[in-house]
Design goal:
- By secondary structure, the chain is α/β, with parallel strands linked by helices.
- It has helices spanning 22-35, 48-51, 55-72, 90-95, 118-130, 150-158, 175-187, 212-218, 221-236; strands at 4-9, 37-42, 45-46, 77-80, 83-85, 107-111, 134-137, 162-166, 193-195.
- The longest helix has 18 residues, at 55-72.
- It is globular and about 45 Å long.
- The mean pLDDT is 96.
- The structure holds fe (ii) ion (FE2).
Length: 241
């Protein structure tokens, strides 16, 4: 198994709808490491209307996980970020440092509801980009409104937008539409980063290797390395992709 960098995960316990106990969090990390992950960014949801203020709880869990990893997996690097559930005025939370960017960089991981209207998604991402953030669109294959908006996706990427895909979508984890869109984005060279978006050990496990069959058939070694390691690594160093 190759070396992976998982940039999107909900492993921190008792923070959002991710790991529900310390044991589950540690077991998720064990699974992730066994899968080949050597760089990991924890990205609890930042959605005040759903999860209240999670700064304290996420920092506490992150400290526990770091201590566990330092003891057991000294070659594993851990970072902290957030997955910002877009809402009107959310850039104020970023500016105030209430919502985290990715590992303190200018990159922000942003998500929307699956059935968001195109106009809402487009204006939200544009606004964050104009505010000076490097926007990573979380699980870009899942938004219905983007199935027929490949030209807009091209322009988003040309303006510096980053496309993150969930590894499990290529095996149908998010339905046939998302699976088709995942492959289309890959085929057109519009994808930058593949992550797990892991939430638990059962229905949404930390399994980045699930997409490797596809990648080995359709991508060069260099492309695989960019998608599963290099680009995510660059995000945590605030380097250009
Ligand atoms: Fe997520």
């Amino acid at each position: 198994m190759g070396n992976f960098f998982d940039l999107h995960s909900h492993m921190l316990c008792r923070v959002d709808d991710g790991a529900s106990s310390e044991e589950e969090m540690y077991e998720m990390l064990d699974r992730s490491y066994a899968d080949g992950v050597r760089g990991l960014c924890l990205t609890p949801h930042f959605s005040p209307s759903m999860f209240d203020d999670t700064r304290e709880s996420s920092e506490k869990s992150f400290a526990l996980l770091k201590a566990y990893a330092a003891e057991k997996y000294p070659d594993l690097e851990l970072f902290l970020g957030n997955e910002l559930g877009y809402y009107d005025g959310c850039q104020r939370a970023l500016e105030a440092g209430i919502c985290r960017t990715m590992a303190g960089s200018r990159y922000v991981l942003v998500d929307f509801p699956e059935y968001v209207e195109f106009i809402t998604l487009r204006s939200g991402l544009g606004l964050l980009q104009r505010s000076g953030y490097k926007v990573i669109l979380a699980h870009a294959e899942r938004y219905r409104c983007l199935y027929r908006q490949i030209d807009w996706i091209r322009s988003f990427v040309a303006a510096g937008g980053i496309i993150q895909l969930n590894a499990s979508s290529v095996e149908g984890g998010w339905g046939n539409g998302a699976k088709r869109q995942w492959k289309k984005l890959m085929r057109l060279g519009l994808a930058h980063i593949i992550s797990t978006d892991a939430h638990n050990l059962t229905t949404r496990p930390p399994e980045l290797s699930i997409c490797m069959n596809y990648l080995k058939l359709h991508c060069t070694e260099e492309e695989i390395s960019l998608l599963t390691w290099e680009n995510a690594w660059r995000v945590t160093r605030d380097m250009a992709i």
